[in-house]
Amino acid sequence: MGEQGSGGSKKTAKTTKKAAPTKKAASAKKAAPAKKAASTKKAASAKKVASAKKVAPAKKVVATGKAVAVKKAAPAKKVAVKPPSDESRTALVRRARRINRELAEVFPYAHPELDFENPFQLLVATVLSAQTTDLRVNQTTPALFAKYPTPEELAAANPEEVEEILRPCGFFRMKTKSVMGLSKALAEDFGGEVPGRLEDLVKLPGVGRKTAFVVLGNAFGRPGITVDTHFQRLVRRWQWTEETDPDRIEAAVGALFPKSEWTDLSHHVIWHGRRICHARKPACGACPIAPLCPAYGEGETDPEKAKKLLKYEKGGFPGQRLKPPQAYLDAGGRPAPPLGAA
Q1: Rounded Cα gap, residues 323 and 187, in angstroms
Q2: Is 14 a catalytic residue?
Q3: 210 is catalytic
Q4: To pair with 291 at 20 to 30 A between CA atoms, which of 48, 50, 79, 340?
Q5: CA 335 → CA 96, 164, 225, 313, distances in Å?
Q6: Would you state the pLDDT for residue 121?
């Protein structure tokens, strides 16, 4: 029985061995669809990739469109850093004119702070005031006009002698050349008289629009806006304009006021800039127009500390003119000391 069992088992083993390939084939046949499925999946994924690649340009276009939108929006983000302002043009005009009215009450005696007795003296003094104070000019010009009272005499002067007189004003060589040059032009082209037209004044050596408007407004009574450093600083602080070019500032601010107010407006703004709204440390706590100022808080807000920052008559000090108008003296202003005075 044992032999028959072993023989039977051998036959069964042979049969099993023969059946094995069939199983392999079956498994192979079963695996085939899996391979096909795999290849189908690969094909499908390949098609997806292909379709994705085809769609890619559209995505790029969309992305590019978004990028352009971001670039265009960038300036708005930069502007948004500043305090937002929804002030209308009408509101701006009203606020600007109210500031001018209130400054007129604070400085009713505002006037040009250069000493002069005629248009020629004002023209020369204004040219000399570049890069120095009006006080220094007022302390220097008495000696100059005493020796050379007319354009003809100043044009024929010895340059070295003029330079020595003008030395306290700084840049005395350049300023000597300018005042002697404009004096010569006045003598030769205008009969020794200062012209009363803007187009003529700006042709003179050393004379620009600012100087011309000082002369026209204060010697001839013709309205003009004087855009000096104080004026530029304050009108930007008050957000009357964002312009930085003097000519553009002149045009922008001029459009907010009647032409008849331009000269006095210039005096009010410049006086406020010199006495209260200083460049480095404004006296915000002593400012009469603080409720109207968008820049309130840039300087000292404590009233007592702010009062100590006031200059000239507001701080109890002499003004810049040796011979100021009587209205200024009547209001409590004090004349400046002459050059060399203790």
Answers
A1: 28
A2: no
A3: yes
A4: 79
A5: 31, 25, 26, 10
A6: 98
